[in-house]
Amino acid sequence: MSSECSFIKVSYVIFFGLILAGLWAAFIWVMLGKPSSVCPPSVTPPPSSAPSTPTPTHCPCLNNGICQNGVCFCTDEWKGEVCEIANFCNSSTSVSLTFDRILIGYSGYSKEECEENTANAGIPKATRRCLLEAGVLTLSEPVLMDCNEGLDRLVEQVTNATGDELVKIASNTQMLTSQPEKLTVNNITTAADIANRILTRAKGNESEMAAVAAVTTISQLLDAKDAAFENNDVAIVAKSLTETLEAFSLENSNNITGVVQPNLAVQSLTVNSSLMQGVQFTALRGENDTLISKRIEINSNASNLIMDRNAEVQIFLNFTTVNNTDGQLGFVLYQNDKFFRSRFYSSTIKMNRRVISGSFSAGVLNSIDLLFVPNYNSSGISFYDYACVFWDYTLSDWNTEGCTKTSDDDKILKCHCNHTTNFAVLMTFKNNYKYSKPLEVISIVGCSFSMAGLLITVLFYIITRKSRKQILTIMLVSICISLLIFNIIFVIGINNPNPSNMTKSSMSRDNNQLSTDLYIKPDKGYCTFFTALLHYFLLATFVWTLLYAVQMFLLLVLVFSYLPSYFTWTVIGFGWGVPAVIVAVTLGASYRINNPLNYRQEEFCWLAALDIQGKFDISKPMLWAFLLPMALILLCNFAVFVCVLIRAIFKKNSKLTSTKRSSYKKKLLGSFSIAIILGISWVLGYLMLIDHRESQEVFSYLFCILNVTQGFQIFIFFTARSKTFRKSVSSAFSSLSVSNIFWHSINFDMKRFKTTSSRETYKQFEPSTTSAFTSTST
């Protein structure tokens, strides 16, 4: 018999140990090693450009061209009616230097890099351009770089440099900035200063190559990290650089009519006053966000803005020349707004905002019309409103003065302005939320059972409070009350009653300044109120389970004979006060009436957890105000549960004789009851974060079933199994066994029909383990 008992003990330890250790191991793995499961959805690239003439409905597009509505849309490397004409220079070799394919107008870099023992290790040794001259593709001669030259030395040389020296400095600066992701703030400011000086001096044919290299350098700077442009020194040099580019676009004395690089396009134009009505600049959509020469078009004799369905940006300048003088125009298009960092307009959505400048000389401006086509991923957001703005160099920020909105279509944004400078549209979007569905039957039924069981348990423990220690009643009743209130609030308040998806695009006619690119509906308080209540009572529930675990540890593991007199009031203050402090700190730190979503979620009324990209954000209150406190509490409860479980299984009882199997059965039930009251099953909530879909579904159903019925489980194990409760219920039903029915003054006594019953009593050998059952004989 002793060997059988030892086997049972070991089996219990192994069974519970494996289950609980597995749960916590999985929890730790999920929290520390879980990869991000949220990936930005793919975006179908728009067509690269529109051909000059349409083709028949069936178009045999070559070189991976896409046929849409009978028209071939070519990739960046090809052009022509059916994408048959190369838009690149082939791979080349020159003086032991090798270059890959280079698009027309772009610069390419050699595969050979500076050696490790040089100051510019890893930087390409040479660069060359692909040119289209008189319809023939040609490659410029490679320009070699000094692998020990630095930007600080180049900026000192540029002031007195002329001719070939200026070209050398410009090319070296271009190559030193060819890896923009590695550039520091000092690199950016120095390179921008060099480019600024070169463009200021770029007058005459000998400076054409230097000017092109300087524009290429600026284009590369626009690929540097966003954080670098928050620096004040970078902002100052960026202001000077944009002003210089605007002036450079009006200088046609160097015969540079256009330079197009991936992030920057500069176009110059001289228009005959006798033919001019207006000039239109168009940048067509492509397969990616980069600019390319074949997608830049200029109409020098337009009467008004002619909308191109494939355009991404268009600007139309209508002005009148003075004294029959030819007009000089300049356009500058920036692929993004990194040179225009606003202090008042905050951006949270990752998207490029193109900025375009239109300038003229020798004339009087009549009007400017602009068109912008928003390019964003519409799977998670939808358009809400926009503002037509220009860059005010006095304010060093965006301004709406002198511009009006002229669009009623959120797919095409139009503006009208009465002055020239750098223009853009600031857009605001709203999230497309997927709101939670009403609670399913399993949740409603489970919560209903839990609420009923918790209410009965509270009433029973209050009525019978004199039969047990006061502290035990306070703890169990507090757990049940907080869990009961949480379930009630969960059922009636978890769904957001005021979804912002009902808010339609405003598209107001007023051209008002915007403060952010993400529209957040001002809080009406309902959902935030229920979020705070849910947060408080769920935290309170688990703080009380922690106190219950501490009490068990003191009495059963450390075997305290009694607890201090101040213990009761201490646990009351701790149990209800600590959750209140956490909720108050959370509200104060993260809630703002104009931005409630930093505190709560929009889809349902609970703490915020994800960022705008749908990824878990550690700065949101879900982590530090709920998950971490819950994890600490569950870890402590788990440790106490294991200690109590081991002590209960291995504790010797000399009074046991022949009913050890029944004793171990009672200990097993007792272990389950402790696990329930300590909330151990809530560990499954952390396991729901696992990426594996099938496992996630299993843990989701287990979590739902075990936790929505937690109150009912407490009722079963702590109330229904109580002798006092069973006796009270038995007495209540016994009182209904005799009844008198009156019918037309005839009395029927039901006692005569009562069946004879005998009461049998079975007594176990363990003290205070008596069970009574009533059997009915027919």
Topology summary:
Blueprint: H1 2-33, E1 66-68, E2 71-73, E3 78-79, E4 85-86, E5 88-89, E6 92-94, E7 97-99, E8 102-103, E9 107-109, E10 126-133, E11 136-139, E12 143-144, H2 151-157, H3 164-176, H4 185-201, H5 208-221, H6 232-249, E13 258-261, E14 264-271, E15 279-284, E16 296-299, E17 311-321, E18 327-334, E19 355-361, E20 363-372, E21 381-392, E22 397-399, E23 403-405, E24 413-417, E25 422-431, H7 441-463, H8 470-493, H9 526-557, H10 567-590, H11 621-650, H12 660-677, H13 683-687, H14 693-708, H15 710-720, H16 723-734, E26 740-743, E27 746-749, E28 757-763, E29 770-776
Antiparallel strand pairs: 1-2, 3-4, 5-8, 6-7, 9-10, 10-11, 10-12, 13-14, 14-18, 15-16, 15-17, 17-20, 18-19, 19-25, 20-24, 21-22, 21-25, 23-24, 26-27, 28-29
Helix pairs in contact: 1-11, 2-4, 3-4, 3-5, 4-5, 4-6, 7-8, 7-14, 7-15, 8-9, 8-10, 9-10, 9-11, 11-12, 12-15
